[in-house]
Amino acid sequence: MKKVVITVPRAKAAILTKSLAGIAYTIDDSEERVSYTLYVQDGMVDEMIRKTHATLNGSDRVGTGAPIWTGLIPEIRDAVGDEDRHTLIEVSTPDFVISPYLDKLKEEWKAQVQREERAPVEKILATVEDYSKFDINKVILAAIAGIVALIGLFLNNIGIIIGAMLLSPLLGPIYALAISIAVADRKAMVDCIKILTAYVLMLIGIAAVVTLPLSFVIDLEMTPEIASRMDANSVYIIMAILLGLATIIALAKGIPEGIAGVAIAAALLPPAVVTGIALVWHPAGFLDALTLTLQNVVGLVAGSLIGVVFLKIGPRDLISHYNAKKSLARIAWFLFTMIVLLVFISFLV
To answer: 230 and 82, same structural domain?
Structure first.
């Protein structure tokens, strides 16, 4: 159960009261604003926010390009009037609620026809906000994961490789990129692409830098774990697409990031490290390893986009929703072209 506090300017209180008809709530009335406190089931939050947004948006707000009630959008100051500084929706989860009346409503709600439970897009945006920012701690973690994976690859030890996957923070930028595309946040898209590119190049570079001196000191062997990442089979693109799709759905349904992130790391971390190894130690396999890495990156992003479409993640505002769909279509065509190109290359190398 969620506690929802809706605060609106006094001028909008009347229309919101009509929208909340049939819902139990309390009112905190002040001179400039009115606050409504509601307790709703988790599966009802998204629909409640949608109805509230539609009510507050009104005919005079159509086409502003941003919901007037959310503080998550930086452009809020340009999209709203002064009175809307009092307009917000706050959602929290209380430790527990004791109310025979709410217990009765809960049972009635469960008895109804099963509804599709969706996480509000605002909650999803909040979870990915940090992923689109450069974090030196995550860079260091990725570097350590790359070195650990390199050791596991040369020792042919799958346990060490899995340990590196658990350390790897590669899930964040791919997940954030898919969500940013879904809501047409161009700045976040560019930031995520930069971060993801930096991670991949760093893993390749670290593997090359570590492997070069090792090749002069130790008699390195071509282990099965390394050899398997020098096979740019086109079937890996399908695997990456499925992993990207499954990961987005898992995260949206509340599965912990540490579990879902292993799937992303499994597809991306070892191939990137092997690409670095091949660059300085086995040049004949470099192109294969690089192609496999690119296949997995493109496949993971494509699968993630399929996931956000399946989950119907997007802006609430109609104009923003339309623009996001156009942007998503263009990026989908680009990814499709890249997949076809990489499949063709995989037959040549």
So the answer is: no
Strand ordering across the sheet containing 33-40: 25-29, 33-40, 2-9, 88-92
Cβ–Cβ under 8 Å, residues 10 and 34: yes
Tokens for 61? 């707000």
What kind and span of H or E run contains 173? helix 171-182
pTM score over 0.70: yes
Task: Report the range out of 37-51, 188-202, 261-275 with the highest average pLDDT.
Answer: 188-202
How far are the Cα atoms of 107, 331, 334, 335 from residue 277, in angstroms, in the given order? 59, 32, 30, 27
Q: Are residues 131 and 75 in the same domain?
A: no
Residues in the chain: 349
What is the domain count for the chain? 2
What is the extent of the structural domain holding 80? 2-117
Radius of gyration, alpha carbons of the chain: 24
The reply to whether 209 and 62 lie within a common domain is: no
Rounded distance between C-alpha atoms, residue 108 and residue 264, angstroms: 40
Identity at 271, one-letter amino acid code: P
Binned at pLDDT 50, 70 and 90, residue 56 comes out as low
In a shared domain, residues 251 and 216: yes
Triad 253, 257, 259: Cα angle to 5°: 95
pLDDT at 312 > cutoff 80: yes
- Mean residue pLDDT across the chain: 81
Domain with residue 113: its CATH number is 3.30.70.120
Q: How many CB atoms lie within 10 A of CB 91?
A: 18
96 and 147 housed in the same domain: no
Residue 2 dihedral angles phi and psi, to the nearest 5°: -115, 145
Q: Mean pLDDT: which of 20-34, 84-98, 208-222, 243-257 is highest?
A: 208-222
Same domain, 13 and 73: yes
Q: Examine the domain organization and report whether 131 and 76 are in the same domain.
A: no
Dihedrals phi, psi of 22, to nearest 5 degrees? 90, -5
N- to C-terminal Cα separation, the chain? 55
In this prediction, residues 232-246 reach a mean pLDDT of 90
Q: Which of 87, 85, 203, 187 is nearest to 141 (CA)?
A: 203
Instruction: Let me know whether 310 and 162 are in one domain.
Output: yes
Q: Which residues are CB-neighbours of 242 under 8 A, at least 6 positions away?
A: 303
